[in-house]
Design brief:
Elements lengths: L15 E6 L6 H15 L7 E4 L5 H12 L2 E4 L7 H14 L2 E7 L19 H11 L3 E7 L4
Helix pairs in contact: 1-2, 3-4
The structure holds zinc ion.
Length: about 150
């Protein structure tokens, strides 16, 4: 039988934007620059965009704080348990539910993030794993690596 799934057209205003990234402890300068960059990205979107994140420390928390301040609706996807199996499930959910995804990390001198082939010189983050999955689902993904020179 040749039955086709009905195509659901998304109405404007239902765009879900995921912001994920490093959970590393950030210095004051790194936090400041991270906040600036996330704000720049968020301000490009209409305020009826829904901002989703994983509720972890670092980028997740910073992004949702800024999003709420600007007036976005936010959704936090917390893992049921604090173990990889559930983080993985949560990260996949974010990849599935978002329409677009940004992953933010901090540049480092040594190669640290092995979620890429070849691995890259930035703080390792499961956000890059989520980005990889979202990319496979044809979502628009952007990786932003901040380098802070002091
Ligand atoms: Zn990475």
């Amino acid at each position: 039988m040749d039955s086709k799934e009905p195509i659901l057209l998304k109405s404007l205003g239902e765009l879900k934007l995921a912001i994920v990234g490093t959970t590393a402890n950030l210095t004051k300068d790194e936090q400041r620059v991270m906040k600036q960059e996330i704000t720049i990205v968020l301000k490009k979107y209409p305020t009826d965009t829904i901002i989703i994140s994983g509720g972890a420390k670092g980028v997740d928390t910073i992004a949702l704080e800024i999003a709420k301040d600007i007036g976005f609706k936010t959704l936090e996807y917390k893992p049921e348990k604090e173990i990889w199996e559930f983080y993985k499930k949560r990260n996949l959910q974010i990849a599935k539910d978002c329409d677009e995804l940004y992953c933010f990390s901090i540049g480092v001198k040594k190669i640290k993030c092995y979620h890429h082939n070849p691995p890259q010189k930035h703080e390792k983050t499961a956000g890059c794993w989520t980005l990889k999955k979202a990319k496979q689902m044809n979502k628009r993904c952007t990786l932003i690596i901040l380098t802070i020179t002091t």
